[in-house]
Write a structure and sequence with these properties.
Blueprint lengths: L1 H14 L3 E6 L2 E7 L6 H18 L6 E4 L6 E4 L2 E5 L11 H21 L3 H33 L27 H31 L3 H19 L3 E3 L2 E3 L1 H33 L3 H27 L7 H14 L1 H16 L7 E4 L2 E8 L3 E6 L4 E5 L1 H5 L2 E3 L7 E9 L5 H13 L11 E7 L4 E9 L5 H19 L24 H43 L1
Antiparallel strand pairs: 1-2, 3-4, 4-5, 6-7, 8-9, 8-12, 9-10, 10-11, 13-15, 14-15
Length: about 550
């Protein structure tokens, strides 16, 4: 329909003869067309020059008249020729005399107004109006600044509401609520919009003030004419055609509209359709993102075609650009594909406790390019998605969050192994974060150099608390062993020297005997000190038990 409308009216518009404006003090009064050997522009220039002379002369008020004694009506000013009204100037359904009378009335009003605008009374009035306009523009600009400072800027420090619902496995808001980055982007967009509005207010104010005075009105008309010519002149070659600045503004507007429409459709797709499918949030986000990019790509091609760009003329340029962009975006493409694999194969999910590249933490977010992990130190680490496919990943929560911990423990030789086993089982069962099924187990692993080594095996359902659980178990094991007199020995080594290995030819026999006696004395002292410490611990336990019995 639109194409038919344009096809019907464009030939009619193309057949219209060119016109030129008759202007006075920057105001367009009416338009004239060519007449005989004179073009419309020549006729308009001559008439405008004559009007300017009349106003600049300072003569008494001009008198506009019509001379009907000629073949065509002639408009006169102060009984001097001004302009002839020809048949080309008359629209259909109107007579020459009627057109001349209409132009005469227009000229009288315009000349009278122009003469009034050159008086002192008008200048005073115009200055007052200009001051009022500047004051009004300043108030509006200040109000917009107050809106930003008082209402919008404080929101940037609290981008998320504490009452905003979040998913149970992560701290991110649920679908339909803006994220922190989206919220900040909206604030920046609002700031830019307010800045543009403030700029428009001042531009409108200055343009209006410039139209109040005849002298500045001419300059404003000249500036607007220059801007208009620079906007509509085709100066940028692209393909087989040239385009103007206005054409590029139109293209930018179309692309912005396309992106806005794509976001709206993507939001509806994500909040209405994908939510009903029961897919995970990561899959929903990825599907919406793929739709977003695809829609923008196809829409851009359609917009360029509608805009008038012949894409076939840019084939070579597009191929070279595609190769360059492809080489430059290899890393991004790799991360994008890796993100799709992670999202759809789901080896890791939001909320999983993982270990990768020496980092341990909970998966907070999975996007098509990167994954966010919050470590045990509450530090967010952004890892590229390819890291999860190129290296080994330990997922403590995969398929089941239940995992086993191994707690190695060593006791001194001579300890009662049955008591050791019972104490380890007791400590494990009394911890609230250790599962009762599977039950804790104790294994005698080996005879060590200085201790008997055991492994306490326990199962937990919260892998992210494994270090805290280990610490709690070690504290409790040490306390229980001390209460039962079970010693956790220091690592020790026995060094034996044979007399044949000692270079006795350079050492006196007295020194050798002294060293031997010192070694024997030190060994005896260490042994007695160890036994004394054990007796003291037992005596303390006996005394404490007696005190408890007396109290009972």
């Amino acid at each position: 329909m639109i194409l038919s409308f344009m096809g019907f009216f464009c030939p009619i518009l193309a057949q219209e003869k060119p016109t030129a404006p008759i202007m006075l003090e920057g105001r367009t009064l009416f338009y004239v067309r060519e007449s005989g050997q004179y073009t419309a522009e020549q006729r308009a220039n001559e008439a405008n020059r004559h009007l300017g002379k009349i106003l600049d002369s300072g003569d008494p008020p001009a008198v506009v008249g019509i001379d009907s004694g000629q073949e065509v009506p002639v408009i006169t000013i102060n009984n001097r020729y001004f302009l002839s009204v020809t048949y080309n100037d008359v629209p259909m359904g109107k007579s020459l005399q009627g057109q001349a009378l209409a132009w005469k009335n227009t000229l009288e009003v315009a000349i009278s107004k122009a003469e009034y605008e050159r008086t002192l009374k008008y200048y005073i009035k115009a200055i007052i109006i200009a001051i009022a306009v500047i004051f009004l523009a300043a108030i509006l600009s200040w109000k917009l600044g107050v809106i930003w400072q008082r209402w919008l800027k404080p929101l940037s420090t609290t981008p998320t509401d504490s009452n905003t619902p979040t998913s149970s496995s992560s701290s991110q808001p649920l679908s339909g609520y803006p994220s922190e980055s989206s919220f900040k982007f909206q604030l920046v967009a609002l700031l830019v919009l307010l800045t543009i509005i403030r700029g428009i207010i001042w531009i409108v104010a200055f343009v209006y003030i410039s139209r109040l005075f005849p002298q500045t009105r001419r300059w404003s008309d000249l500036i607007l004419e220059i801007l208009q010519i620079s906007l509509i002149t085709d100066v940028f070659p692209l393909g087989n055609q040239k385009y103007s600045v206005l054409d590029f503004f139109i293209l930018i507007g179309l692309l912005v509209g396309l992106v806005t429409l794509t976001r709206m459709v993507s939001r509806v797709l994500k909040s209405k359709l994908l939510t009903a499918t029961g897919l995970s949030r990561a899959v929903q986000d990825t599907t919406a993102l793929i739709f977003n990019y695809t829609f923008i790509f196809l829409g851009t091609i359609v917009v360029l075609q509608v805009w008038g760009l012949d894409l076939s003329s840019l084939t070579v340029f597009a191929s070279v650009l595609g190769v360059g962009v492809g080489l430059g975006l290899q890393g991004i493409a790799k991360e994008f594909v890796s993100g799709l694999v992670l999202i759809f194969e789901r080896p890791i999910q939001v909320g999983d406790f993982v270990e990768v590249a020496g980092l341990m933490g909970t998966v907070e977010r999975i996007s098509v390019r990167s994954t966010e992990i919050r470590t045990l130190d509450q530090v967010s680490v952004i890892l590229p998605n390819s890291r999860f496919l190129d290296s080994e990943v330990i997922n403590w929560s995969h398929s089941s969050p239940i995992s086993r911990l191994k707690i190695p423990v060593g006791v001194a030789y001579g300890s009662n192994l049955e008591i050791v086993r019972n104490l380890l089982i007791k400590v494990a069962k009394n911890h609230q974060d250790i599962l009762s099924m599977p039950s804790p187990q104790v294994f005698f692993s080996e005879f060590g150099d200085s201790s008997l080594k055991f492994n306490l095996l326990v199962w937990i359902s919260k892998p992210y608390k494994q270090f805290q659980i280990k610490s709690d178990l070690y504290f409790k094991i040490d306390s229980e062993f001390r209460a039962e007199g079970i010693e956790i020995p220091f690592p020790q080594r026995d060094v034996h020297f044979r007399s044949s290995d000692v270079p006795s030819q350079n050492i006196s026999p007295e020194l050798i005997n002294s060293l031997s006696n010192l070694s024997n004395s030190l060994a005896t002292w260490l042994k007695e000190n160890s036994h004394n410490q054990t007796r003291q611990d037992k005596n303390k336990d006996i005394q404490s038990n007696k005190v408890i019995k007396k109290e009972n």
